Amino acid sequence: MIIINVERLYIPRKDGGRGLIEVETAFKIATIGLDHYLKNKDGQYPKQVLEHDKSKAKNSITKNACKFKGEVPISEFENQEDKSASENAKAVKNKIKSRMKSVKKEKGKNKALHGQYPKLLEKPHVLAKTEYISRHDKAAAYLHWNICQDHDFEVIDKWYEHKPESVTHNKDSKITIMWDTPVNTITVNRPDIIMKDSVNSTCKLIDMSIPSDRKIALKEIEKKSKHKDLEFEIQRMWQMKTEVILVVVGALGAIKKGMVENIKRVSERANVTETQKISMLGSARILRKVLNV
């Protein structure tokens, strides 16, 4: 695994990471909290534990807590008199936890790919103007190729050689697939794929998007809002039950909860892993061109 990916595992999702809990960090926070509790808890037993702990050469709670505190410098914590020792210890743990998250976030942002170049993966750069469209179109073409296979359209064997036509009908003309075709209704009228099923009177509006990993949730909300009016207009004009299906995959492969189900609603053959792979390979091409590596 690449180092940048290891860092991103423990950065909060809203900041572009995976939001997992790191065992080492959890151990350090628990040790600091326990040390604070023992030092501030009244009674003979906490004092006996501390006395025994001082005699330990290894795995001393007090010594480890002192060491861990030095890794994340914070201001001295003042106990609140109206709260118990356990409540004050919990407050210390929350303060340390917040500080450790901030340190890890900054460390992650200083990594070249995660911190310095996220905008290169979402906004067109002068040295790679066509690569952003190419990345998007290849991911959308993969979905189009799978939909065609689902409904017995004639397609070539390799999806990456597939060239979608503007309008395609199957053998009995019951299924129509439209590629990047505007519908003469409202301003936002051009989803990537429109699939009309004349037999079941249904219509699917499928739109593909590849934002930066930290903006996948925001992009999904934005796309839903944009296509809502189009959904109502098509339902009214064509008298078909219409639904919008959004496929949003991050530039570095991140997906939101529920995206696997969304892709399966597009096509049972489509694979979320393959979609992520297309996105990441496209991002790699962009970075190679821009950074000349």
Description:
With 293 residues, the protein is an alpha+beta fold. Helix content is 51%, strand content 10%. It has a five-stranded mixed sheet. β4, α8 and β5 (241-248) form a beta-alpha-beta unit. α2 (23-40) crosses α4, α2 (23-40) packs antiparallel against α5 and α7 packs antiparallel against α10 (272-291).
Short précis:
With 293 residues, the chain is α+β, with helices and mostly antiparallel strands. The protein is built from ten helices and five strands.
Write the layout of secondary structure elements.
Blueprint: H1 3-9, H2 23-40, H3 44-54, H4 61-71, H5 85-109, H6 112-116, H7 129-150, E1 167-169, E2 175-179, E3 193-197, E4 202-209, H8 216-238, E5 241-248, H9 259-266, H10 272-291
Parallel strand pairs: 4-5
Antiparallel strand pairs: 1-2, 2-3, 3-4
Unreliable segments (pLDDT under 50, ≥5 consecutive)? none
Spatial arrangement of strands, main beta sheet = 1-2-3-4-5
**Overall mean confidence score, pLDDT:** 85
Give the termini distance in whole angstroms.
Answer: 20 Å
- The rough form would be described as elongated
Structure summary, number of beta strands: 5
Please work out how many helical segments DSSP would assign.
10
In percent, how helical is the residue content? 40-55%
Strand content: 5-15%
Content-based structural category: alpha+beta
Rg over CA atoms, rounded to whole Å, is 27 Å
Order of helices and strands: HHHHHHHEEEEHEHH
Largest sheet: 5 strands, mixed
